[in-house]
């Protein structure tokens, strides 16, 4: 295995890197047959081919060059030698080699942002086969420019049918009448969406070292300038009926036209600025779609990848899997993903009397989420992403939209508790304190009575009359009555008992004030079930029968499905294949609160979806019926999908950046928000806290439960006493 040291020789070996000079390297792809230099040494007399090869390398000044050459072409060595002199990274591939080698070489450098050139010096039949391979394997690229040398122009019509937009080709067609004369043609797309060739000049090889060149501009057209004006061309846009982003209006003949939405405004602005018209087309499966494990590409992504549409726009999230089959512009809209569930149901008031001493989890459903360190970090990442990808922040706009939408709904205070029976430590201490206070008073009184009996000189007549005859049961009952603000029947004239009663009265007043005030607040303001605010809450809720809900073919489905570990993977494992998927956002929002009669998961679904669309649809259906989680996740950017290698992508990006910088995207978004209709059941809702409710039997059911329990217990004790009395009085 060797590396060539001279630019005019090519030695066969497996692909590797050979350093011709320390500063420059030439990569030679696998050459399957013999030493090319030996075979073409006798053909170097073809000076015209040599001069053409030298001219092309000098004219295009490539930074990276692919030479696809025929063994018998006289200019092969000249092309390699000239690229070596120009210090150009060159890949030499014989025309007869497998097309897979050329495909691998093209894909290996496809990520480079610099312009690459490929020179084809092959037979007409092989040239046509190469461009068919480029079409079938979607190797179009706006950074790859092809130069083809042809013998005569018979191949041009067939080549025009094979080429697709994104493959830029310049032809040097030799004039059969004058072999020194070459006509230069360049491909372009005409308004009828077909590939045509435009004559750009001529090249003629002279006997001297100088060439006669007459070109109308450059060998390759300036694509940025060319696509500044589409000349009235009609494009096909793949969309879904998904207002507020892209709403469709259906015609009587079954067709559809763009109606209103944020993305409609964006596309209208692009068409007006770049002078093109568009028609809309929906995918047959009704999905956003993307690459599938079986190799198929579904949805509107598949329509663009298969060249059924020129672009796709409709709340389309940029994902790594989709970028492998289509090209995305820079994002023009940023938002995050949230969890949407049914509104927490009011908690039962049966045990409201225990709530004042319960561990409280309070949630104020207002304009902005409760600030936390996690949310601040996510917001910072969200802002940095917006700056890096579009150069424009949209955070203020998103907050304003959220406030405006939530202004249509009623702000509620959600009071949630881990246990309706409260903290057993507090209730245990209260019971123990009340139970011990009676015996303590009884013991102190007994001690005082014992002292008076042994000291006749002390006047304890009053003490004996007031305390001596109080039993333990009476003492305990009076202490319990003091806790409930009842009058204490025990009267004392000794300071030891007075101090004990004084401290007990203070303790009872504090407990009574705290309990009664807090209980009044709980009875007046409704309490609700624990809401689902994060993915961890969703995992806990799955134990109660909740399941996550995804849109079929959406980026969220692909994201959770592709996760192999972590919280996303755990959530995906909890999904139910029969009830965790919906084809439209509207159906998903309806499934959150309602379900068919044959399903038992009514209200047991948590929708994973983007925030803006969910918030608008919740407002339309009644904001009070839904709960939007406070924690957000997975910031996602929406972009326009273009065909792989689409040359007009850069012009789209320039216009999108200009729109965002001018604030047009923000304005169009808020224009759609103002169109949001209110639900009939929430017209009277105001953005203020709910006024305290009047106390009803529903609030006091706990007190009646206790009274009923007391009656039952007293009845049982009475029956026991009667039975005991009968047993004692009955004769043997």
Output the keywords:
single chain, 732 residues, alpha/beta, Rossmann fold, ten-stranded mixed β-sheet, six-stranded mixed β-sheet, 25 strands, rod-shaped
Number of helices: 24
Anisotropy-based shape: rod-shaped
CATH architecture of the domain at 16-221: 3-Layer(aba) Sandwich
How far is the N terminus from the C terminus? 122 Å
Largest sheet: 10 strands, mixed
Pairing-aware structural class of the strands and helices? Answer: alpha/beta
Assign the CATH topology of the domain at 16-221.
Rossmann fold
CATH superfamily of the domain at 16-221: Response regulator
Query: In terms of per-residue confidence, which ranges show pLDDT below 50 for 5 or more consecutive residues?
Result: 1-45, 360-422, 460-467, 596-601, 682-689
CATH class of the domain at 16-221: Alpha Beta
* Strand residue content: 15-25%
Helix content: 25-40%
Question: Mean pLDDT score, rounded?
Answer: 75
Strand order in the sheet with the most strands? 1-2-4-3-5-6-7-8-9-10
Q: How many beta-strand elements?
A: 25
Gyration radius from CA atoms, angstroms: 42 Å
Describe the structure in your own words:
With 732 residues, the chain is α/β, with parallel strands linked by helices. The chain has a domain at 16-221: Rossmann fold, CATH 3.40.50.2300. The chain contains 24 helices and 25 strands. The strands form five sheets. A ten-stranded mixed sheet has the order 1-2-4-3-5-6-7-8-9-10, with helices on both faces.
């Amino acid at each position: 295995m060797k590396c060539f040291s001279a630019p005019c020789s090519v030695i066969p070996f497996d692909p590797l890197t050979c350093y011709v000079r320390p500063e420059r390297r030439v990569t030679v792809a696998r050459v399957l047959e013999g030493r090319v230099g030996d075979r073409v040494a006798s053909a170097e007399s073809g000076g015209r081919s040599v001069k053409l090869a030298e001219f092309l390398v000098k004219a295009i000044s490539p930074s990276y060059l692919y030479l696809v050459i025929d063994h018998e072409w006289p200019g092969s060595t000249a092309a390699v030698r000239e690229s070596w002199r120009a210090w150009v990274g060159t890949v030499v591939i014989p025309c007869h080699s497998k097309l897979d080698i050329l495909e691998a070489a093209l894909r290996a450098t496809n990520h480079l942002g610099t312009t690459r050139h490929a020179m084809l010096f092959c037979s007409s039949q092989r040239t046509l086969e190469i461009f068919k391979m480029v079409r079938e394997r979607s190797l179009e690229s706006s950074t790859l420019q092809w130069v083809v040398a042809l013998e005569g122009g018979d191949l041009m019509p067939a080549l025009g049918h094979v080429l697709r937009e994104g493959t830029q080709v310049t032809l040097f067609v030799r004039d059969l009448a004058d072999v020194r004369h070459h006509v230069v043609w360049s491909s372009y797309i005409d308004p009828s969406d077909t590939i045509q060739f435009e004559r750009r000049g001529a090249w003629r090889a002279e006997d001297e070292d100088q060439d006669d060149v007459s070109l109308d501009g450059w060998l390759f057209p300036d694509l940025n300038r060319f696509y500044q004006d589409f000349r009235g061309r009609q494009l096909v846009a793949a969309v879904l009926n998904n207002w507020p982003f892209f709403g469709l209006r259906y015609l009587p003949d079954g067709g559809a036209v763009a109606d209103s939405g944020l993305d409609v405004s964006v596309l209208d602005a692009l068409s007006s600025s770049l002078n093109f018209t568009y028609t809309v087309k929906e995918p047959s499966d009704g999905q956003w779609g993307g690459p599938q494990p079986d190799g198929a590409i579904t949805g509107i992504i598949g329509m663009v990848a298969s060249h059924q549409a020129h672009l796709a726009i409709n709340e389309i999230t940029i994902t790594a899997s989709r970028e492998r089959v289509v090209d995305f512009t820079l994002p023009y809209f940023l938002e995050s993903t949230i969890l949407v569930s049914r509104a927490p149901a009011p908690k039962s008031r049966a045990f409201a009397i225990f709530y004042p001493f319960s561990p409280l989890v309070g949630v104020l459903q207002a304009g902005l989420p409760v600030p936390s360190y996690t949310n601040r970090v996510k917001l910072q990442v969200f802002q940095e992403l917006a700056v890096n990808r579009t150069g424009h922040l949209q955070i203020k706009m998103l907050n304003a939209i959220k406030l405006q939408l939530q202004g249509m709904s009623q702000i509620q205070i959600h009071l949630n508790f881990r246990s309706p029976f409260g903290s057993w430590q507090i209730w245990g201490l209260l019971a123990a304190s009340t139970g011990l206070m009676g015996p303590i008073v009884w013991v102190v009184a007994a001690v005082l009575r014992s002292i008076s009996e042994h000291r006749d000189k002390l006047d304890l007549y009053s003490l004996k009359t007031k305390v001596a005859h109080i039993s333990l049961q009476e003492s305990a009952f009076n202490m319990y009555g003091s806790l409930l603000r009842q009058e204490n029947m025990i009267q004392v004239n000794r300071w030891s008992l007075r101090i004990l009663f004084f401290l007990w009265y203070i303790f009872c007043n504090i407990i009574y004030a705290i309990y009664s005030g807090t209980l009044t607040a709980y009875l007046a303001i409704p309490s609700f079930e624990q809401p689902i605010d994060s993915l961890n809450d969703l995992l806990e809720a799955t134990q109660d029968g909740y399941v996550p809900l995804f849109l079929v073919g959406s980026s969220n489905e692909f994201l959770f499905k592709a996760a192999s570990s972590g919280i996303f993977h755990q959530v995906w494992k909890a999904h139910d294949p029969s009830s965790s998927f919906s084809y439209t956002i509207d159906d998903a929002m309806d499934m959150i609160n309602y379900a068919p009669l044959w399903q038992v998961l009514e209200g047991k679904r948590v929708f994973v979806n983007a925030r803006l669309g969910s918030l608008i649809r919740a407002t339309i259906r009644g904001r009070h019926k839904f709960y939007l989680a406070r924690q957000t996740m997975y910031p996602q950017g929406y972009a326009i999908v273009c065909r792989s290698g689409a040359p007009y992508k850069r012009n789209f990006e320039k216009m999108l950046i200009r729109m965002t910088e001018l604030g047009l995207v923000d304005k169009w978004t808020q224009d759609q928000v103002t169109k949001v209709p209110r639900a009939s059941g929430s017209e009277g809702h105001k953005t203020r806290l709910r006024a305290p409710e009047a106390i009803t039997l529903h609030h006091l059911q706990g007190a009646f439960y206790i009274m009923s329990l007391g009656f039952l217990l007293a009845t049982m004790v009475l029956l026991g006493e009667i039975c005991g009395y009968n047993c004692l009085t009955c004769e043997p």
